[in-house]
Design goal:
Layout lengths: L16 H5 L5 E6 L4 E6 L10 E7 L1 H22 L21
Antiparallel strand pairs: 1-2, 2-3
Length: 103
């Protein structure tokens, strides 16, 4: 097939300054229903018994699976360059911030 039969499909993605700064998270809480995955990102600080969700991302099951695959692939590539990522044992974090809902 000729090259002009498959035009390049490019997506123009912009990011504003506040979002570009990012949010630090050392805990992700994942809930799901039949139609969506909800990922809450939290920053828990030592000695502080109260934390707030810093960001919530809602994904379709298909996007959640693609995200899991992309994370797995990127961790693999990172470890090829930098060595194994050590997973230090940490005590479980009590998750007593209320009930979870279904959509």
């Amino acid at each position: 097939m000729a090259k002009d039969q498959h035009p390049d499909h490019k997506i123009n993605i912009e990011i504003d300054g506040e979002i570009a700064e990012g949010q630090y998270s050392n805990l992700a809480i994942i809930n799901h229903s039949v139609s969506e995955f909800v990922v809450d990102f939290v920053n828990i600080m030592p000695g502080n018994p109260k934390s707030k969700v810093k960001s919530r991302i809602i994904l379709t099951p298909q996007h959640a699976k693609r995200l899991a695959k992309a994370l797995h692939e990127n961790v693999r590539k990172f470890e090829q360059v930098h060595g194994d990522i050590k997973d230090y044992e940490q005590p479980p974090v009590p998750l007593n911030f209320g009930p979870t809902g279904q959509a």
